[in-house]
Amino acid sequence: MPRIIVDVMPKPEILDPQGKAIARELPQIGLDGFTAVRQGKRFELSVQGEVTEARLAEARKAGEELLSNPVIEDVVAVTVVED
């Protein structure tokens, strides 16, 4: 059964305290190569049948109107995963 993945991230101008906390801790576990972290959300929508352009558009609309807070977040990707 295919899935549509909707990735949502905070808008660039929005502070991301969770991302900052993760970035501070990375060197503590020996990971020094990262300069910043932004934390977002991932939604997996299961689809019966074929994933069409119309179904992808519906997933994007769900992301923009229900899965994200459009004041502070952007839908940054809508992709298909075939199992």
Automatic annotation (TrEMBL):
It comes from the Bacteria. Pathway: Purine metabolism; IMP biosynthesis via de novo pathway; 5-amino-1-(5-phospho-D-ribosyl)imidazole from N(2)-formyl-N(1)-(5-phospho-D-ribosyl)glycinamide: step 1/2. Signal peptide: none annotated. Keywords: ATP-binding, Cytoplasm, Ligase, Nucleotide-binding, Purine biosynthesis. GO terms for cellular component: cytoplasm. GO terms for biological process: 'de novo' IMP biosynthetic process. Part of the FGAM synthase complex composed of 1 PurL, 1 PurQ and 2 PurS subunits. This is Phosphoribosylformylglycinamidine synthase subunit PurS. It catalyses: N(2)-formyl-N(1)-(5-phospho-beta-D-ribosyl)glycinamide + L-glutamine + ATP + H2O = 2-formamido-N(1)-(5-O-phospho-beta-D-ribosyl)acetamidine + L-glutamate + ADP + phosphate + H(+). It comes from Rothia kristinae. The gene is purS. Its EC number is 6.3.5.3. GO terms for molecular function: ATP binding; phosphoribosylformylglycinamidine synthase activity. Transmembrane segments: none annotated. The keyword Transcription does not apply. Part of the phosphoribosylformylglycinamidine synthase complex involved in the purines biosynthetic pathway. Catalyzes the ATP-dependent conversion of formylglycinamide ribonucleotide (FGAR) and glutamine to yield formylglycinamidine ribonucleotide (FGAM) and glutamate. The FGAM synthase complex is composed of three subunits. PurQ produces an ammonia molecule by converting glutamine to glutamate. PurL transfers the ammonia molecule to FGAR to form FGAM in an ATP-dependent manner. It is found in: Cytoplasm. InterPro entries: PurS, PurS-like_sf. Belongs to the PurS family.
